[in-house]
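Data's thin. Show one?
=====
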Amino acid sequence: MRLRFLVVALLIFLTSQPCDARGAKLWPYDEMQKAADLIVIAKPVKSEPTAARLDGYESAVGTNSTFDVQATLKGAIDGNLSCNISSSPKIR
């Protein structure tokens, strides 16, 4: 019985593959709200690809997205909200 357990444990150990991952903080809603500069309810209006790329991710395609703001829950905004992957959100 003990030998069987050791053989199974050894097989699992030898056949398992290492994985690349990083820890991510699980943010409670109240912490996210405190850390946010702007919270809105928005409808996507337009999204178009760009030439921007993320370092280390050749298959990731950059996008410019524009949103129509329906309601502002925190912060101030006039008009549309525009975001892209290579910079912080910009207000137009």
